[in-house]
Give the backbone structure.
Amino acid sequence: MTHRYAHTAAPIILGGQFTLPGSKLTVNRMGYGAMQLAGPGVYGPPRDPDAAVAVLREAIAAGVNHIDTSDFYGPHVTNQIIRKALHPYPAELVIVTKVGARRPADKSWQRAISPEELTAAVHDNLRNLGLDALDIVNYRAMGSVHGPKEGSIAEQVTALAELQRAGLIRHIGLSNITADQLAEAQTIAEIVCVQNNYNLAHRDDDAFIDDLARSGIAYVPFFPLGGFTPLQSSILSSVSDGLGVTPMQVALAWLLHRAPNILLIPGTSSLAHLRENLAAAELTLSAQLLEELNGIAASTMTATH
Ligand SMILES: NC(=O)c1ccc[n+]([C@@H]2O[C@H](COP(=O)([O-])OP(=O)(O)OC[C@H]3O[C@@H](n4cnc5c(N)ncnc54)[C@H](OP(=O)(O)O)[C@@H]3O)[C@@H](O)[C@H]2O)c1
């Protein structure tokens, strides 16, 4: 079936391209994170479902070919909006989802990590996205308030590897994990991407990112703009003022400059913010500005979460 977005023009490359290891999946480094499309608190429907559909369609039309989602956003709502907006999907679109949590009616985030729960979550994603197989599924470990928490994830990765052998998952990734957990997972399955909390102000993963770059594994920062607490810093403001762009554009451009294996999935429910974020793929930062921006994490700014 031909798709209304596919191949109408030369492909648009946003921020360069990256091929996920051991895969045929090549994506633009600037992608889109769909979490903001659910209702307040990532629960229930958005206030304006048509606007959510418009954001997704514009993202694809502008060249995005990597969307991050989960069936626990909403729950189900975000995937259903993606399906409504974009199905049948362009051949080049890579949809990455994640499993490992559930959302009870009290809107909390609870672990759902037994093999049975992970299998059910994969089927939920398939059904709500309208797919026969998922391109990439991240196992999202819960961790602690401070971030990832050590501990075996072998049972969960084994469950995903079985679903991969059954043809329901093409590739496996990990989220909110440590380097030791990655090493354990790699004894069970090939891991193509890691999705952890990282941005200008929150740089616990600096060494991890460099190791992953050497292995050719994608690093996909969540909260690239600070997430629920948007980045604020006088250094960031002064650099963006000097360039005549916005602080969020500089924050995204800094990530693209930080390492070649970083793929971006900034989240927004706003068309204006989407356009602004995608334009950051064109922004070049000099070595001097990069050095200034590297000072943010060390400064006393209150930007992290
Ligand atoms: N693996 C995980 O555990 C995990 C956790 C969190 C998120 N994620 C994924 O990562 C993606 C990105 O994270 P995120 O959406 O939480 O955080 P984010 O991208 O750091 O920031 C999103 C927030 O920034 C605002 N924003 C976006 N663009 C902006 C702009 N140009 N100017 C000003 N404000 C802007 C958004 O509000 P507006 O809607 O008003 O633009 C939203 O409040 C998510 O969409 C999700 O797919 C994964």
Q: What stands out?
A: Confidence is low (pLDDT under 50) at residues 1-7, 300-305. Residues 64 and 240 are 24 Å apart (CA to CA). The two ends are 44 Å apart (CA to CA). Residues 33-36, 68, 98, 140, 175-176, 195, 222-227, 230, 248, 265-270, 273, 276-277 surround NAP (CB under 6 Å).
